[in-house]
Amino acid sequence: MLLHHTFTGSDKVADRRRYSFYRGLFTGDVLNFSKRSPFVKEIMFERIYPTKIILPMKMHYGVPATPTVKVGDYVRIGQCIGVPEKGTFSVPVHSGISGRVSDISEIVLPNGIKTPAVTILNDMKRTRLESVKPRSGFKLTAREAMGIIRDAGICGMGGEGIPTAAKLRRAKQEAVQEFLVNCLQSEPYSTSDLVAITEYPDYVVLGSCACARAVGASKCVFLISENRKEQRQAIANSIERIKDDFKDLQFDIKLFRERFPQGYYRLVARALYGKNLVLGETLEKSCKAVLFNCSTMLACWEALSDNIPMMSRIVSVTGDASGGHNMLVPIGTPVSELLSNAQDIKNGSDRIVWGNCLTGIEIKDAENTPVVKTTSVISVVRRMDVPRTPCIHCGLCSECCPMNLSPNTIYEMLNQGLGQKAAEEGARDCIACGCCSYVCPSGIDLTTSIASFAGEGRIIEVNSLLDNSGSEGRAPDDADMYYVGEASLLEDYADSDEDSGESSPDSITLPFEKDKKV
User: Fold this and answer.
1) How many CB atoms lie within 10 A of CB 487?
2) What is the DSSP letter of 428?
3) Would you say 103 and 496 are in contact if contact means Cβ atoms under 8 Å apart?
4) Disulfide engineering: 155 pairs with which of 60, 207, 241, 342, CB 3.0-4.6 Å?
5) Are 298 and 169 in the same domain?
6) Domain count of the chain?
7) d(Cα 400, Cα 378) in Å, to the nearest integer?
8) 281 lies in the same domain as 160
9) Residues 79 and 97 in one domain
């Protein structure tokens, strides 16, 4: 079986390795990770047009954006309705529907974040901004490409929601050589990233190539499970179609074992480079590589090529007792409207989980809980009363922990108030994957306690990372460009410091329109 491809002019096999970290959860158990039932085809690609959207101003890592509209204002598709304050670590927010603003108030998201939110009632006319249209062909500088991505409001769609432009800037500053694209969606019942690859492979690959060029990487590497043959072939075919436009890049497809939680950056560093990154170490600095989610790359190419800001995403709606659905929905769509379109999912007494069933958060008010930029799945799982007994010291939690921790020991230390000793045992390294709680035969919720303690030690000043290259307290290089205004402003990105002409050493050529093979 072909396990690793290198595309360098001619297609040839580089090696037969399968990459992975140790421990974690394997496929084949009752969660049936790799043998999921086929999703309902006629619903898979349905675009949901909700009656309203609720747009939180904070759906990303950083500080909230500031609403630019008021109650009663008319909003069009693609319009920017929230902008970052000057010099802050944030991203704009855009509307995926047209209609009128009915409310602006503070809400509390399931993860406890308090944020202003703009509610827009859909007029069902689907009126777009005139600027939301395919871009005409031209050359971009790396700075311009990052500016477009920033103004499009793009943040990481597979994890913490770190603003993509800021992460690209850090990668460029660290002179990364490998641009890694995470196609390793290993969460149970979630296939939104896999659908993105299957349906829009050229957009995923072109977005990856554009961003790789922008940061100066020499190799673009796609990480995917060995069992995902359809998606692997889609990526390989797309690379064949576009590789002549990106002759300066080498392309790899590296196959990973089907294991949860595959894709976390510290586990990727261990699997690919044999490095155990300690808390605070970055993939960019230690391995000269940067890791992005494949859906994020799709969003980047939509912004660069089609002037579409981040205003919608694919969301899996599924559970352990029903079929699966993938829906393309405007960001801000209430969870209740997704469930109403998934006819075979009955959620009477079931738990509705905002996220996947191992790491997500149960929600009580589906009517007022929105899909945000980082929501890849809504899980509906049967409510079960798991009997709780004292720890029997079986060691299963230690055997499955991907970070090589002893969750039962750390849990007992925290219960006894021994936080310092728990930290010395590595509690701060917890990635909240939920594996320990899932395998515990005593029904002890180990993850919640340990992950909460770990999170308390990761509070970082809002402007202290990614944007800053070393000067303490310095505002971002282009802080004066953070005002976005009414429209999406994707048509032009003013670059005050660099000449974007052909002679610029920072210029990158992207295959737009006639030259674009999409």
Assistant:
1) 18
2) G
3) no
4) 60
5) yes
6) 4
7) 25
8) yes
9) yes
Cβ proximity of 194 and 92 under 8 Å: no
Residues 220 and 157: their CA atoms lie apart, in Å, by: 19
- Render pLDDT for 484-518 as a digit per residue (tens, 0 to 9): 333 333 333 333 344 333 335 456 666 554 333 33
Q: How far apart are the first and last CA of the chain?
A: 29
**Two tokens, residue 66:** 């500031």
- The range of the structural domain enclosing residue 82 comes to 53-122
Please report, for residues 93, 127, 151, 263, 484, the alpha-carbon distance to residue 79 in angstroms, rounded to integers and kept in the order given: 9, 10, 11, 33, 10
Q: What is the pLDDT of residues 449-479, one digit of tens each?
A: 998 888 776 543 333 333 333 333 333 333 3
What is the C-alpha to C-alpha distance for residues 9 and 251, in angstroms, rounded to an integer?
Answer: 10
Q: Does residue 184 sit in helix, strand or coil?
A: coil
Cβ atoms 318, 196 nearer than 8 A? no
CA distance 501 to 507: 7
Instruction: Give the Cα separation of 73 and 90 in Å (integer).
Output: 24
| 153 and 293 co-located in one domain | yes
**Taking the complete model, does pTM exceed 0.90, yes or no?**
no
Would you tell me the crossing angle of helices 201-215 and 192-199 to the nearest 10 degrees?
90
How many helices and strands, by DSSP H and E, does the chain display? 15, 22
Q: 3-state DSSP call for residue 56?
A: strand
